[in-house]
Amino acid sequence: MDELYQKTRKFNVSDYRSLLHRLVDEAQQHMEQGSTEHKVFGEKLYRCIEAQVNAIEQERLQAEQLQTTVHIIFSLSDAGSLKVTLSKLGKRQECRVLAFNDMFSVGPIKDLHTLRGQQARQAWITKNDPEHLFSVRHNAANEIGAMMNTLRSIPESKKVVIWCADNAHDQTGLRFALYVLRERKNVIHIANVTHACKEMGTNWGEEAVPYAAAHIERDTYVEMVKNYGEGYALNRAERIALEAEWEELAGQDHILRLWKNGSIIGCEEEDLDDVIVSSMLELQRHQENSGAFVEAADLVIHVLNSIRQRVTLTFITHRIWKLVSEGVFVFRGIPGQLHQFSLRLMGEK
């Protein structure tokens, strides 16, 4: 029995759903095709499954009745932090937290609110970001199509709080979620963690104001959720304006989006290449041998710290390999393995 528990603890939502379907099919097969003894077993198995499903459904309905607020967030890790904080503040029971598992700043989002747009994005991710594809498959309930259905099923009596920060990923996700909810009558609030940090009076330098929730210290985050977790309510005109901005974004073919001067800017895929090269030069200047190889992981981290944008590690790595293929960088090590290769600029020794 313990061994069975150990195995099921490794299951994700999709695995549990598959297990349940197999048990139901097994019960049905026994009832329809088996001997009398097998039919009795199948009937008992079916009734047992039915009773447990009904019990779980009842528990879910009771939990939903206690919930007054639905929080929408654009990262599984951020969702985990929010759940822990809400529990610490004694608000977890009254709140539901929904999380997208995607990076809206990278990859195509043209017509993403349609099945064709989702398929085009999936094809791009399959080719260019297999690590993210693995994550999506193990968190099927949080992928785009499933989350759209979940958002549309939120009871209109519930208040919705959408969490974001000043970065293209969150801000694109915000507009997408509002578009999905455009026909819903829920009261919708926005909780912007970047703005909240500024309002809290913490002594941030202009270059240090958090552009993502992950960059906020734990104690500060708890205080922020406590005092600013309701965000501010959008009026109808603001909702319509943000929905229209989504439609504009969804009409573009850009692969990269950056946050500049308070707006989402669609960019060409190579627009970060200059930052990658300048980061390489900066790292080399701090070495005794200015032409020495630089660890790829150090270069990726330096780029992310320099741009102050939420993009994936794999996108930066993808652009580095593009620069290698174009002869800008020379590499040594194992291709495709971030922690096992280093680079230097072509022509330097």
Keyword list:
10 strands; 3-stranded antiparallel β-sheet; 5-stranded mixed β-sheet; alpha/beta; 349 residues
The number of distinct helices, counting runs of at least 4 residues, comes to: 14
Beta-strand residue percentage: 5-15%
Instruction: Give helix and strand order, one letter per element, not per position.
Output: HHHEHEHHHEHEHHEHEEHEHHEE
How many strand segments? 10
* Shape by Cα distribution: globular
The strand line-up of the biggest sheet is 2-1-3-4-5
Q: Largest sheet at a glance?
A: 5 strands, mixed
Helix content: 40-55%
Describe what this molecule looks like in 3D:
- The structure is a single chain.
- 53% of the residues lie in helices and 13% in strands.
- It has helices at 2-8, 13-33, 36-66, 76-88, 115-128, 130-137, 144-152, 168-180, 193-199, 218-228, 236-249, 273-285, 296-307, 313-325, and strands at 69-73, 95-99, 159-164, 188-192, 232-233, 256-260, 263-267, 294-295, 329-333, 341-345.
- The strands form 3 sheets. A 5-stranded mixed sheet has the order 2-1-3-4-5, with helices on both faces. A 3-stranded antiparallel sheet has the order 8-10-9. A two-stranded antiparallel ribbon has the order 6-7.
- The termini are far apart.
